[in-house]
Design a protein that fits this description.
By secondary structure, this protein is of the alpha/beta class. It folds into 3 domains: 13-136, Rossmann fold (3-Layer(aba) Sandwich), CATH 3.40.50; 172-199 and 224-426, TIM Barrel, CATH 3.20.20; 432-542, no CATH class. Helix content is 34%, strand content 22%. The strands form 5 sheets. Strands 1, 2, 4, 5, 6 and 7 form a 6-stranded mixed sheet that branches. It has a 5-stranded mixed barrel with strand order 15-16-17-19-18. A 4-stranded parallel sheet has the order 3-8-9-10. Helix 1 (37-48) runs parallel beside helix 5 (128-136), helix 1 packs across helix 6 and helix 7 runs parallel beside helix 8. It is globular, with a radius of gyration of 24 Å.
Length: 544
């Protein structure tokens, strides 16, 4: 069993301390194993100014407290809450505790924008990196970071990854192709914080590649291009003129080609968001982009589509970006291009879809329409790798509960009648899923996931070493997870508990196999009166 991630050597005394409270926003994730661009930019400022600094995560703070420092910079906050396995975002209560420290304190990120926190000396609504840089020059101003600053600081601050407890593996660097929403001039979706960043300012390909290369040279091998509202819209034309900008396939192809040319041994390169309206309105251009993504990203990739609601009334009242018909067209096209299974056992590229409860205009029929949309996809054998159902947060960070019974019913029905059936289609029993990183023990069970975007939770009914990789053979399906056994499961070396976890063996057969220790398929089949039963079990087993 490997040492805990959360206990590492660190400086006891420092001038400036960065506390990474983790972010989870519509187009940005920094909850472990992810690290977002923000702490990298803040570290870049400190490096540029030659300030002595240390970096710790929210989870390290909970375990070991804060090292001594003159200044504390806290960045974090959640606007789209999820369920996390490897880390927990800093809460408002914890942020307030840090803010009461007798030191100069700065707060940035969604905690500063929406957290109703007054305990800090400086509460920065825009970019903490820019504000702190200016404060070091005695002219602090709450502003967004300028593009040339961002590019400098991201490179100079890349070394912060070396201080992350999950460095270098399984750490994932969250990357950004641009910030802001192409629909900014209409206000964007009513619930979303992304339009606050204004008109997208697309990063140049060379700068994106330069940042990835800086991290790659520091031994980071996992990357997600997740820090933008729509991957398909990178370098799109007519931004600010059309609600649905015109995608540019050549720009995206060149970007991903350059990434691999500079960093040929990347292990994971994944994506996050896409606007289904862009794909539906420009299917030929989008298909070229999807083919590029299948070729130049790693299997298990997901494009999360922001439908949010299938109810026309909710779509209109919240200025949502897509309709159910547009979203279905996007799902069909992604399925057409990306369903092939990759070398790690996962389909190469699949869609995900997001639903939000608590939007304006929501009614009981809203959830019926949402479920009907999903039911029709299942009937047409269209795959969704992930269905995210959550409730919108208020500006105070509180869940907006409106039609709570209907919301819960929709969520439960989706898990039971949609998710499980999709998992069975995508991962039939006997499928081998490779490179599953084991993260958590719960009694005798072990839980893990592949490294990547929205990874599938995988449970094993017996103990395995944590912080280690295993190949897993699928044995059963839950509502949002699968159960499996490690592969290869060698009969002569397997424990009784491991044998018992094989479907169809059970306690008595497991005991018999454990005692006899057959050394070949022929000896194994002799243990069964019904040879068909023995043959069925052999797809899960191997012999030394």
């Amino acid at each position: 069993m490997k040492k805990s991630f959360w206990k590492r050597e660190r400086k006891d005394e420092v001038d400036v301390l960065i506390v990474d409270g983790y972010v989870d926003e519509p187009s940005k994730l920094g909850v472990p194993p992810y690290i977002s661009p923000e702490p990298r930019m803040i570290a870049g400022v400190l490096e540029e100014k030659k300030v002595d600094w240390e970096y710790i995560t929210a989870d390290e703070y909970r375990i070991s407290g804060l090292p001594d420092s003159k200044i504390i910079l806290v960045h974090g906050g959640v606007t789209v809450p999820g369920k996390y396995l490897s880390g927990t975002p800093l809460s408002i209560k914890e942020a307030k505790e840090i803010g009461r420290r007798n030191r100069e304190t700065f707060l940035g990120g969604p905690l500063a924008r929406y957290g109703d926190i007054e305990e800090f000396d400086h509460i920065v609504k825009k970019d903490l990196s820019a504000y702190f840089n200016d404060s070091l020059e005695n002219k602090p101003r709450d502003r967004w970071v300028r593009e040339e600053e961002k590019e400098r600081w991201l490179i100079k601050g890349a070394k912060v990854v070396e201080k992350h407890p999950m460095y270098p593996d399984p750490l994932i660097a969250e990357m950004s192709m641009y910030r802001g929403c192409p629909r900014y001039f209409t206000g964007g979706c009513d619930f979303c914080s992304e339009p606050e960043y204004g008109k997208p300012n697309f990063r140049e390909k060379e700068n994106i590649v330069k940042e990835i290369k800086a991290l790659y040279d520091l031994e980071v091998k996992h990357f997600r291009m997740g820090g933008q509202s729509c991957t398909i819209s990178y370098k799109a034309k007519k931004v600010g003129e059309k609600e649905v900008p015109i995608p540019q396939p050549a720009e995206i192809r060149k970007l991903f080609q350059k990434i691999w040319q500079s960093c040929p041994n990347i292990e994971v390169l994944h994506l996050d968001n896409a606007n289904p309206a862009v794909i539906a309105n420009y299917p030929k251009k989008s298909k070229k982009i999807l083919q590029t993504l299948v070729r130049y990203t790693t299997p298990g990739n997901i494009l999360a589509l922001g439908l949010e609601s299938a109810d026309p009334q909710v779509i209109e009242k919240n200025n949502l970006n897509s309709t159910p018909s547009m979203t279905k067209k996007a799902i069909e096209l992604i399925n057409e291009v990306g369903r092939e299974r990759g070398e790690n056992g996962m389909p190469k590229l699949l869609p995900g879809v997001n639903f939000l409860g608590g939007l304006k205009g929501e009614r009981e029929e809203t959830f019926e329409k949402n479920f009907e949309f999903l039911k029709n996809l299942l009937a047409e054998n269209l795959w969704l790798r992930r269905i995210n159902i959550r409730q919108v947060l208020s500006t105070e960070g509180k869940v907006q509960v409106k039609n709570k019974p209907e919301f819960k019913k929709f969520k439960k029905k989706t898990r039971e009648e949609i998710d499980r059936h999709l998992l069975k289609k995508m991962f039939p029993k006997g499928t081998v899923i490779k490179n599953v990183f084991m993260e958590k023990n719960d009694g005798k069970k072990t839980f893990g996931r592949q490294i990547g975007t929205y990874p599938l939770l995988i449970g094993v009914e017996y103990p395995l070493d944590l912080n280690s990789y295993y190949n897993i053979t699928v044995t059963d399906h839950g509502f949002r997870s699968i159960t499996g056994i490690h592969h290869p499961l060698i009969v002569q070396k397997a424990s009784f508990e491991q044998l018992k976890a094989v479907p169809g063996i059970g306690s008595k057969r497991a005991a018999k196999i454990f005692r006899e220790r057959p050394e070949s398929k022929e000896e194994f089949l002799q243990l069964f009166q019904n040879k068909k039963t023995g043959d069925e079990l052999l797809k899960y087993l191997t012999f030394d």
